[in-house]
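User: I'm putting together notes for a lab meeting next week and I want to include a structural view of one of the chains we've been expressing. I don't have a solved structure, so I'd like a prediction I can at least talk through. The sequence is below, exactly as it appears in our construct file.
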Amino acid sequence: MTGAKMKQQVTTSPLDEQTDSIVVSGLTRRFGAFTAVDHVSFEVHRGEVFGYLGANGAGKTTTIRMLCGLLAPSDGSATVAGVDVRHDPEAVRFSIGYMSQKFSLYEDLTVEQNLKFFAGIYRLSGRRARKRVDASVELADLAAERSRLVAELPAGFRQRLALAAALLHEPKVLFLDEPTAGTDPFVRRRFWHLIRQLQAQGVTVFVTTHHLDEAELCDRVGLMAKGRLVALDEPAGLKRDHAGGKAYLISVSDVARGSALLRTQAGVVRVTSFGFQLRVVADEDLPPAALEAPLTKAGLDDVRVSPVDATLEDVFLNLVQEQEGHDPMAQGEVVREVAP
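Assistant: Thanks for the context. Below is the predicted structure for the 340-residue chain, given as structure tokens.
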């Protein structure tokens, strides 16, 4: 796979330690007879924004919890910021920032009180604690809300506060587990602006998301299915190698009927509704005329077949269906939005 490091074993060298913030080799986690993460191996480069995708239950959050020192691996190894997660999980937790899916700060405290509390948890005190609270408030643009109770804050402000708390101790590696879930496009756009600011400061960002437009903004993306890492590359490489075929946008007078007809057409890999149009992925050697013919023959009007670029949605649907045998779009595991 072009641009990917999909090997089963990783040999760490002094150079690796200088250039990679995260090194994972054969990482595995079992819960009884169930394997949630199955011999996963990858590296995340220093200063990289690394996206981690997968359907519900694919193993994304379990991977993050192991890398954050919150869950012991059953097998394999990982180092984060140069610290071994198996042998020194507490040191890992003090070396990273972590923002979970669920808001976890105290609603009955103010913004400033929350930050001071977490500064104490990170063993910051005195002048350094005050400077870090001030810097985090400035980064998250929360100066006007400094004295407000968290319970009074809108979702977007809470999200930025959680990020500010995760950055108090100036970690070089930041884990974000679906940080924009349930927020509107404006809030997501603003949050990704903060991520870019952090990257410019040399912070490595490991992010999971269900918003595939956000994954497009990552430097590289790994895709999980059934606990295994099944693809890893830059977004352009994934779209080139794993879309499942050529993509088309088809306009037709009756979308439901057109979809039913195309699903029975030889060479058609996948049909999904896209507003009042159909998005079709078909075999590379299937000509556009073969998509138009059954529609016009059935008497459907205004048929137009237009080639379009593959997207990460195509990649996600193709790989998840290939590995897990179900349609993640139908189960709400992928979200279409306008890119931040």
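A couple of points you could mention at the meeting. The chain has a mean pLDDT of 88. The longest strand covers residues 20-31.

User: Perfect, that's what I needed.
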